[in-house]
Amino acid sequence: MRRREPALDPAVAAELEALEAALAGDPAADPELSALVRDVRTEAPAMTPAFRGRLDQRVERGFAHPPARRRFALRPLVPALGVAGCVVAALVAIALTTGGRTNDGARGGGAGTVARAPAATESSDAARSGSSGAGGAALAPPPAAATSQRRVERSTRLELSANDVQTATDGVVRATQAAGGFVQSSQVATGDGRSTASFILRVPTSRLDDALARLSRLGHVRSLQQSADDITGAYDGASGRLTEARAERRGLLRALARATTAREVSSLRARVADNRRALRRYQRDFNAVRNRADLATVSVELVSAPRRHAAALGHGSWTPGDAAHDAVRVLEVSAGVALVALAVLVPLTLVGAAGGFAAVALRRRRREAALSA
Known about the structure:
Elements (H helix, E strand, L loop, with lengths): L9 H15 L6 H13 L5 H12 L7 H4 L6 H25 L1 H25 L23 E11 L2 H14 L3 E10 L2 E11 L3 H9 L3 E11 L1 H27 L3 H33 E10 L15 H53 L1
Parallel strand pairs: 1-5
Antiparallel strand pairs: 1-4, 2-3, 3-5
Helix pairs in contact: 1-2, 9-10
């Protein structure tokens, strides 16, 4: 006859239902419980295929009990085993008591080894947390040997002059993509026959030289400035804070699994939530420092070159189109000179004509006056 199960407390039943909803991934579940489920699943060890197969077989059998004859075969031996266990425990206690009086020095010498064990365990736990994430998100782990490699942030400023700025602009984008980088920001301006363009590029540090070689072929290099900053300290600090936060999360989850009272569970869940927020913040900080080391910043300034420098820039020889443009330019200059000369000669001509008319009129009056006398 099966034992009758007692009725659950309504509060306990509500908590179980909320937990079931969080485990099932219900969108309406408690967000805090859902985040806690993700944390626990992230830290849970992966099952081996063999264990998964045995577990599936037991599920298919409905977790059936072994046959009754096997289950009760060892019952007569239970009292004897209990007595033997008590005897062994008493002998071990006597041996430990006797040994403790004579081996105080040896026990003291071993204390240092025991004290160092948690640190070794903690470092191994930190190494095993390679792909764990905050709140279930995929977090990039810091390298295990962060202090053995120097981290350097590189930046470059390149100024180019090109005959065709638009073509050079397209070339900058292609060169950046070929190097495995991306354009962070760009700005192009044209007007009064002069064009300019500016770019902020992020290129993998390992391929920076290749990217600069591609960019330099787009025009005449007017200036090139490079700088390097050692950010090893910032990198190691961000990596250490992230590792400590992950170790703290593992400890909190273990403590939460051992909690027995509602007060302990509530307190530990609040600490897990605080740790989750800190872990996300430390992950962002570490990603930012790692990107500074892995991606170099390249600032490119493009300006249009004077036409007389076109051949020097390698954009082709003097074409008929250039000749027509130069001819039109010569005609424009000639027309301008003619207008300036006309503007000077017209006033002088008017003044000379007025003077001539005045001289003729004066001569005529003198002749008339002489004839009258």
